[in-house]
Amino acid sequence: MFIFGFIPGYAQTAPQLQAFHNAADPSMALADVTISVLGTPVLTLDSVAFRTALPMTGAIAGFPISVGISQTGGPVVLTYPVTLSNDHIYIGMVSGVINPAQFAANPDGRSTAVGVTLFDNARATSTTAGEVQFFMMNGVTDAPTVDLSMQGSTTLVDNLGYGDYSGYVSIAPAAYIFDLTDQTGTNLIGSFNVDLSAYADSAIVLFSSGFLDPSQNQNGAELGLFGAFRDGTVVEFPRNTTAISYNGGNSLPASFNLAQNYPNPFNPVTTIEFTIPEKNHVSLAIFNTLGEKVASLADDDFEAGNYKLKWDASRFPSGIYYYRMRAGSFSQTKSLILMK
Length: 340
Fold this sequence. Notes:
With 340 residues, the chain is mainly beta. The protein folds into 2 domains: 222 residues, no CATH class; 95 residues, Sandwich (Immunoglobulin-like). Helices cover 0% and strands 49% of the residues. It has no helices and 26 strands. The strands form 6 sheets. Strands 1, 4, 5, 8 and 9 form a 5-stranded mixed beta sheet that branches. Strands 13-10-16-17-18 form a 5-stranded mixed beta sheet, with no helix packed on it. A 4-stranded antiparallel beta sheet has the order 3-2-6-7, with no helix packed on it. A hairpin with a 5-residue loop joins strand 14 and strand 15.
């Protein structure tokens, strides 16, 4: 949205800028952007789509810039003034709704009116060779303050309120399941398959987008998790249908336990609970009556605690199945019934 060319004399130190349209208000599905320098329009971008990132590009330093944002073909709903500095990389994200009274309130009382948040310490590439680095922006107006973690283990982003940016996180390029929870870590908001295997040495913008409850927000887009790259590519990370919720707390379990799934019989989603008294590698898999493994629900290190795991069996035929949990020397198998 804020694209400019390089200015002579600034080539070595000119700021870099990347912009995002993440305003989930359905009336802002397409937005027009006008950029002015010293009050003179220099660039107009028409019909920029929701969840679009523009490529990172050179920008003007030291001049007052004004960004006007409007519904496509409509009046300006936001004017954002900014002056950029040399030797900085900026990320500018538009988020929010035009009339907050017509949408669900933010649980933390934050303003959800359309606005721009500017992150001025972005990176063009990872500063750690061979690793992927990302920072996260919480762009979901009706979501509470959130935590982001690797499923059942490491917290990556802690206490991120709506409109806030986190610091950078550096991880190995691999496939992960990321859980988005409230700040207590116990209430699961969303679980996503995040495959970063191909992104070694990349610096990524991770952002949540949409609405936690679309029915209370004019049936806008559902909450999702996205990654954006410096060339403007945006990747939507698919939801994990075997999502785990976690409850650690002060009272940890005294022993291993695998509970009976519920409901049982079920169609097509059921919940499986298990507890572990200490950090351990846990595997939990589903088998058919021939003893063939048909699904792997967990195969990772987990902290001590109580876990709830959901299995979505939509693509499986009706019948009796078995689920087996292994953790250290503990092993237990139970049956479940899928009845469609």
